[in-house]
Amino acid sequence: MAIAVPVADLRAQPHTIVQRSSAHPADGTPVGPPHDPLQETQLLYGEQVRLLSHADGWAYVEALEQPEFTHAKRWQGYPGWLPRSALLRWEPLLAPTVVVTEKWAAAWQDAYGLHPSPWRFALGTHLLATDMGGQLWKVELWDGATVWMPRQAARPLEELRRLSSTQKRRLILRSAELMVGDVYFWGGRSPAANGDETQTGVDCSGLVNLAYRAAGIDIPRDAHEQFLRARPVNALQPGDLIFLSERANPRAVVHVMLYAGDGAVIEGPGTGLTVRRLPIAQRLGHDADSLAPGTVVEGQTVSFGTYLP
Predict the structure, then answer these.
(1) Residue 51's beta-bridge partner residues?
(2) Class of 94-159 per CATH?
(3) What is the CA radius of gyration of the chain?
(4) Which residues are 88's β-sheet partners?
């Protein structure tokens, strides 16, 4: 099956998500939704899932494009429940050719941009699209419909594969920067979108996963799994990952940040806060030159990892 809505919540149990909080602190900054432990992750339009069972309008699936280890102590697609209405039968002829590289990409019902489409596609969404003269993408949808999207809103996956490591690192950071200021959302893996009925936002690993996906690089969903599959490094380059462990277990990773270069990190810090860029020294008490794998910060052990040469 494939996801047939812009963003679908994957839940630990077949229940709807806790609604967005309307509370704001004194300075007017949105705090976002409360922590909801049943929220596992989010899936974007077109992502493949394996349908395992269904009941009462809900489907229990394995999210094949989000590798996960912790639930079953083996590598599998992320398991969970989502509304059965969010799925359509997967069609191999609709294999994606592009990935959305803007925060949200609008679409039109016609090639002249006269009739807006209700469709919007999130950063990191994979689509089957044909280049129309370097100005538009003609996008084939799972239900057989066609929409048109601005050419600058997406890039060919094949083109991204050919980029140099330096170019990919720049694209990863550009994508992460798009989400700076978005509210933190536990289990979130989609850029914030005001006025949308679906709760959107990212957690720490959702931010990293999306930033890499928009650069054409698929990595695991959660921080611990990202740590397990990353190549350890001793020195950071822009776009590399900084991991923090549990206080009692240096090998159990619970948080991930992107190294942004120039001594800064980009992270989704936690419920009630927003995605931010800040100096490593402010965040971890060590500047970039003195921070090293094995450093312990307030009981948490630091590790470095990369998915790039």
Answers:
(1) 61
(2) mainly beta
(3) 19
(4) 2
Cβ atoms of residues 276 and 266 within 8 Å? yes
User: 93 versus 241: which is more confidently predicted?
Assistant: 241
Q: Residues with Cβ < 8 Å from 229, sequence gap 6 or more? A: 67, 219, 220, 307
| Domain ranges within the chain, ordered by starting residue | 2-91, 94-159, 163-306
Q: Residue 22 pLDDT more than 90?
A: no
- Closest by CA to 20, choosing from 186, 255, 180, is 186
Q: Quick one: fold of 163-306?
A: endopeptidase fold (from Nostoc punctiforme) (3.90.1720)
Please, how many CA atoms are within 13 Å of residue 267, restricted to the half-sphere of its CB? 22
Angstrom distance (rounded) from CA 164 to CA 3? 31
CA dist., res. 38 & res. 16, Å (int): 9
Identify which has the larger pLDDT, 297 or 193.
297
Identify the burial level of 106 via C-beta atoms within 10 angstroms of its C-beta, where 0-12 means exposed, 13-18 middle and 19 or more buried.
middle
Give the whole-angstrom CA distance, residue 135 versus residue 260.
Answer: 31
C-beta separation of 198 from 47 below 8 A: no
Quote the tokens at residue 3.
């996801």
Six token digits for residue 25: 């602190």
